[in-house]
Write a structure and sequence with these properties.
Order of helices and strands: HHHHHEEEEEEEEEEEHEEEEEEEEEEEEE
Radius of gyration: 24 Å
Distance between the termini: 80 Å
Largest sheet: 4 strands, antiparallel
Number of helices: 6
Number of strands: 24
Strand content: 35-45%
Length: 370
């Protein structure tokens, strides 16, 4: 009787995909170097999807970087196999606001908002490829969506630029009486609104211009005051603002020195208050950063050393993450489904949180100077 010897490569692709589910990351990498067919199959994103779910520092959104490469980077990060280097250096001490998209890193540097190209290997160019000018003093915060950047300055100004043409879409040289601490905006299909918060204790709504300003328009704008669509008096310094994912509402965070609390949610069309949260906050526990996860889930962080998740359907706090060293949380970023990266004031410390756990997963930071 003749014995039939089966080879792994005789199996169809579906059977191989089923086998791949039970292999470790190291086994998959070893198997990929056997032949061209296995290399092609193993490099498909859906093979690495299950492995990627266990990493909290991986975003499953579409990216030019393959899911296999993202798993490799996440594994090296987990094992602390990485190199530290300064991507952008400053000659003077600054607290910049940064934003990273697929191919550019945007950084506030003085009164400019600079864009640096990020190469495919992750290296960032030393010289900016895009420089957005306009503010008379330091740029505080900015927001980028599609090809539009909106920025607020410490001189109370607000500017919006079209990145492709580098021309201004909105000019508010004296939009606020004091520093514009936070801005956000909606795309053209949702009204092209700009919401801004300032130390002058007001939140203002503006309409962005659908086309560019020419030189005549700029002379008129600089010599007159732009008229906001709505002014909301908060009787407290406003540190952060943000639209929801569907742009039907926006939230504002203040310094928390009034009895009304530091967090408010507003309807974008009527500018009527939907909810306010002040019961869980002590006096002075201001909100420094906020972001909508969904239309009804809101993340906040600030001086009270907590990251909180609010459910706007019940107006209750459903999740809390406490900073272990009692440090104010300046900013955070929600990554994928479970990850949160938070930056604190203590020695440039950055913490990675998993929403499924109470304690932080990883900590990275600069060593304090003696």
């Amino acid at each position: 009787m003749t014995q039939i010897c089966w080879n792994l490569l005789d199996l169809p692709d579906d059977a191989l995909f089923f086998i791949f589910q039970y292999l470790s990351l190291a086994d998959l990498c070893r198997l990929a170097i056997i032949c061209r067919r296995l290399y092609t199959l193993i490099n498909l994103d859906h093979v690495w999807y299950r492995s990627a779910l266990r990493f909290t520092n991986i975003s499953l959104r579409r990216s030019p970087i393959s899911l296999k490469e993202r798993c490799r980077i996440a594994r090296n990060w987990e094992l602390k196999h990485y190199k530290q280097r300064s991507l952008v250096r400053y000659r003077v001490s600054q607290l910049p606001w940064i934003f990273r998209d697929d191919d550019q890193l945007w950084v506030t540097q003085g009164s400019f908002v600079n864009g640096y190209r990020v190469r495919a290997d992750g290296i960032i160019n030393k010289l900016p490829t895009c420089v957005l000018k306009g503010h008379g003093e330091d740029a505080c915060r900015f927001r980028k969506r599609e090809n539009i950047v909106v920025s607020g300055g410490s001189d109370g100004s607000i500017y919006a630029w079209d990145i492709e043409s580098k021309r201004k879409r909105f000019v508010g040289k004296s939009a606020h009486a004091k520093a514009t601490c936070a801005v956000d905006f909606s795309p053209p299909s949702f009204g092209h609104l700009i919401v801004s918060g300032s130390k002058d204790q007001t939140v203002k709504l503006w309409r962005m211009k659908t086309d560019h300003y020419d030189d005549v328009d700029l002379e008129w704008v600089h010599s007159s005051n732009c008229c906001p669509l709505q002014v909301l008096d908060h009787r407290d310094r406003v540190w952060c603002v943000g639209f929801s994912k569907d742009y039907s509402r926006f939230a504002t965070g203040t310094a928390g020195i009034t009895t009304e609390g530091p967090l408010f949610v507003w309807d974008a069309s009527s500018c009527q208050m939907i909810a306010s949260f002040g019961d869980v906050y002590q006096h002075g526990a201001g909100i420094l950063d906020l972001d909508f996860e969904t239309r009804d889930l809101l993340l906040t962080a600030g001086y009270d050393t907590f990251i909180r998740m609010w459910d706007l359907r019940s107006n209750k706090c459903v999740l809390t993450f406490e900073e272990p060293f009692d440090s104010a949380i300046y900013c955070f970023l929600s990554i994928g489904k479970y990850g949160i990266v938070a930056g604190t004031y203590r020695c440039g410390m950055v913490r990675l949180w998993d929403k499924r756990h109470v304690k932080p997963v990883q900590v990275r930071g600069r060593q304090p100077q003696p």
